[in-house]
Design goal:
The protein has helices spanning 3-21, 55-62, 162-169, 182-190, 211-214, 227-237, and strands spanning 88-89, 96-97, 107-111, 128-133, 139-145, 154-155, 174-177, 195-197, 207-209, 223-225, 252-253, 265-266, 269-273, 279-285, 290-295, 298-299, 301-302, 307-308, 310-311, 313-319, 321-323, 331-333, 337-345, 348-356, 364-367, 374-375, 380-386, 394-395. It is of the alpha+beta class.
Length: 396
């Protein structure tokens, strides 16, 4: 037998025994692409008994879903013309809901969005979804959710980039991620960001490794969380769960029962090339009044329910993007100041303006005439796009 193999054999045996003693759960650890502070130790978190699916159902999470029969969203026929008695206005969508979330902090969960990490789980439950470029030409998602306590499995959870902290500030959201870039950790530390970190923070029962995904995927694509796990982590860290009463809202919604359709240009389909290797596109369903999302030309699905992601509103925000000169390939996003974009609804689009005077400020959205932008009620997808790619965005 090879001498090197003989030397490695005892180490492999020890690792196997350690895995067995941990109930077969993989340690929650980082990956080569992310940098972690030396002062923080990587913790091991076993799969929570209260939130992990039973073994017989885990295969359903990772099996390729069937083509969707319907899209997730708020069909037009279910939208009320007035607030039903005993209902409350949802702060992120403007739709009626049974629970008053008006002063509740949402969470912003980082979601892996590369082909090797598919399928995604639970992503159709986002009230607002952000998509932005990271290194390598790929994008990463951040799903913002108010009713996070009732989430089932969500993932896979991925690492932080500093500009996503700014997006969390739009909603006073608690940030859920797994590791991060040096600039992200610097921002978390200096800005006192309330965060749940699946790599360098001890939050018992918040994260776990999906055993089925580990059979076919790299470790960095297997970290999952749940609503119960997030609640447990927030309670363990003793984070504030209420927003200040005067915290500004990002969206100025239309009156209930009314719609405002942009008139500047047709937008029955929109193609957004984030890079030469990753494109998001949307096709408008006039019957449902929803935009169905595609991922590189194929339906973007939530494997938890087999549904295609769909949104009432689309916002395109153009920002200057450069690459750090440290060799990491990471993006430096100019998310402060102002710029242009588009608001898309009902098969139409119009130019808009955005302004942000500080990284912790809420982004201000304005119409082309500088009046406050009025957004229709419903779920919103926000695409943060490199200004250099603006000419490649297609409206048809």
């Amino acid at each position: 037998m090879n001498k090197k193999l003989l030397l490695l054999l005892p180490i492999l045996v020890c690792l196997l025994l350690a895995s067995c003693q941990n109930g077969g759960s993989a340690p929650v650890s980082g990956t080569e692409s992310d940098t972690y502070p030396a002062s923080l130790e990587v913790e091991t978190t076993a799969a929570p008994e209260t939130s992990v699916p039973a073994p017989e159902t885990s295969a359903e999470v990772v099996t390729e879903p069937a083509l969707p029969e319907s899209t997730e969203g708020t069909p037009a026929e279910t939208r009320p013309s007035s607030m039903p008695e005993g209902m409350f206005e949802h702060p992120l969508t403007g739709m009626p809901c049974e629970t008053d979330f008006s002063l509740s902090r949402p969470v912003g969960i980082m979601i892996n969005n590369i082909p090797d990490a598919m399928p995604q789980v639970g992503v159709s439950k986002a009230d607002i979804m952000y998509e932005c470029l990271v290194e390598g030409g790929f994008t990463r998602l951040m799903m913002v959710v108010s009713d996070y306590a009732n989430l089932d499995v969500v993932g896979s959870v991925r690492s932080s980039r500093d500009y996503y902290l700014d997006m969390c500030a739009n909603h006073d959201a608690i940030y859920v991620h797994a590791g991060g870039s040096p600039m992200a950790y610097k921002g978390i530390r200096e800005r006192f960001i309330n965060n749940l970190d699946g790599v360098n923070m001890y939050t018992p029962d918040t994260f776990y490794r999906d055993a089925e995904r580990m059979k076919t995927m790299s470790l960095e694509h297997t970290l999952m969380t749940t609503g119960k796990g997030i609640v447990s982590g927030i309670k363990f860290k003793n984070y504030r769960t209420e927003k200040p009463a005067d915290y500004p809202a990002m969206f100025n919604f239309t009156d209930l029962g009314s719609e405002r359709t942009p008139e500047a240009m047709n937008a029955e389909s929109i193609t957004i090339p984030y890079s030469f290797i990753q494109t998001s596109s949307f096709v408008y369903d006039a019957e449902k009044k929803l935009y169905a999302k595609n991922y590189n030309g194929e339906p973007h699905l939530d494997s938890a329910n087999g549904e295609q992601l769909a949104y009432d509103n689309l916002l395109l925000i153009f920002c200057n993007q450069t690459v750090y000169t440290d060799g990491s390939g990471r993006i430096d996003l100019e998310y402060i100041g102002g710029g242009e974009g588009y608001y898309v609804y009902g098969g139409k689009a119009e130019p808009i303006k955005w302004h942000r005077y500080d990284r912790d400020a809420v982004m201000e959205l304005k119409a082309a005439d500088d009046s406050p932008l009025t957004v229709n009620r419903g779920k919103t997808f926000i695409a943060i796009v490199n200004t250099a790619m603006e000419g490649s965005v297609k409206f048809e």
